[in-house]
Structure prediction request, 479 residues.
Amino acid sequence: MSSLQLIILAAGRGIRMKSDLPKILHPLCGRPMISYALDLAATSGVKQPIVILGEQADQVMPHLPKEVKVVIQKAPLGTGDAVLATKRTLGHFAGDLVILYADTPLLRRTAIQRLIETHHKTNATCSLLMTHLADPTGYGRIVRDATGIVSGVVEDVEANASQRAIREVNVGPLCVKAQPLFEALASIRPGHVGKEWYLTQAVSLLAKRGGSKFNTVRLEHATDALGVNSRLDLAKAAKVIRQRILESHLNNGVTIVDPETTFIDHGVAIGQDTTIFPGTVIESRVVIGRGCSIGPFARLRSGVVVEDHAHIGNFVELVRTKIGPRVRVNHVTYLGDTTVEEDVNIGAGTITANFDGTSKFPTTIGKGAFIGCDTILIAPVKVGAGAVTGAGAVIPKAHDVPARGVVVGVPARLLEQAPPVKGRLPVRTLQPRASKKPARAAAARRTPKPKKPARRSKAKAAPRKARRPTKATKRKARR
Prediction:
């Protein structure tokens, strides 16, 4: 739509956030706050939106897409001055301007589309997005004359007592003809309280001009009008966006056992028939397949891919890791920069030591491997297909485990090769250590006991005494 240009106001300092980080870069469900305004700009059909930045521009610019054109507001003199700063960039543009605020992240695409469509259909000079709030504190009030026609917008800090009682508020976004707006902006003066040039002052001037036509488009959901100016506002906005994300997954066939204790960021893909258990945190840029089971109390960080029918159990943390089909990671495990192929069992307490203090290294676990409890894999390392690690084994870096190998110990040593078993995990071949007592008994049975030397009695050892001759010996002697 060549007659439409879009401006995002993002130069505010965000003093009430009490942070060195620019307000519009504070994260909301896994992405900077300004990203939500950029999404609205993308759906409007404008190819090169203008983003107005202030004194913190150097911090914000790396987070903007390449097609965005940046305009710098030299001094923080208010929203009116910020829009006027784009006049040189827009030149003699005679179409319509859509003006959005980077700190209203809850606005939906449908609201902005209705604003633009209504503006064009009625050929209005200015169209405002409005709503009614029970507590309008902090919002600009829409002032109407006796006939109900908009006669202006007054900021909360500039409003008198009767104006503060008005509950019809200006949400912020508006669609307006460019040249009449720039003419009005050139005529405004600083406010009495804040000493700023307000965009709403120009809107009020336009409303009082003869021949001007004003529209107001009502916001369908009043909660979408929330502007983020403090940490409390940020928390409220995060809760609303998180609920929308959860509802989207629920509508796509995902079971979320307890939405109140489940945290899923923007930019997460989850397949049908997957179940997410309570206490689970899933960060942005995570892909989960169909029929998986995640949690409870699991954390899946950015860069994780979990393929179909995998199980990620309680107190498991994954980061930059690919989990293959039918893999089981059941308990108390950390896998970082890891590739796990299909049909692998990861025992409780398994840890990949992927960071040496300077760099991070990969770990690969082959198809059908069985990783015993409390195994530590010091990256870079590879575990071959069908291999087995014994409980408590420590695999040193670059000491790859061969396919169907069995390793145990600290550091791990290779015992033997496990036979391949098609269609299921290999049988563990680790044998219990033989008892020492039976071994000694068997050796005793095989080796005859040595005979003890005969002891000579004292009588035999003493010299023999002469015997007295008997009658028989006497008769022999006479013969």
